[in-house]
Specification:
By secondary structure, the protein is mostly beta strands. The chain is built from one helix and six strands, in the order αββββββ. A six-stranded antiparallel β-barrel has the order 1-2-3-6-5-4. Strand 1 and strand 2 form a beta hairpin. The longest helix has 4 residues.
Length: about 100
């Protein structure tokens, strides 16, 4: 699936189910953004970032996961952990990103 900003934006605040070796884990989509093109040739899409937050007690490593959502169905996407989106805060949340480029 080639997800667009228009498809992903209304899903902010909803949960995505991630199939992992530890079982099913729900992550909440908290941000969707198109990133700067930085001289990417016209035939390639504008990069799209999906940022999720998840439970603080389970760290998912960068890997390809089966990601499930009621409106998008099941997709296999590369997802990895990222640093806090609130530098300096002590929110104890884990953050993950899926990039489409």
């Amino acid at each position: 699936m080639n997800l667009s900003l228009e498809q992903a934006s209304p899903l902010v605040g909803t949960n995505f189910t991630i199939h992992t070796q530890a079982g099913l884990i729900d992550l909440q989509l908290i941000d969707v953004a198109e990133l700067p093109r930085r001289n990417i040739p016209e035939q390639f899409r504008t990069p799209l970032s999906l940022v999720f937050t998840g439970p603080p007690d389970i760290l998912l490593t960068q890997d390809i996961y089966l990601v499930e959502h009621a409106e998008l169905g099941q997709n296999q996407w590369l997802m990895g952990p990222i640093l806090s989106i609130n530098p300096g805060s002590n929110d104890n949340k884990l953050y993950y990103e899926i990039m489409f480029a």
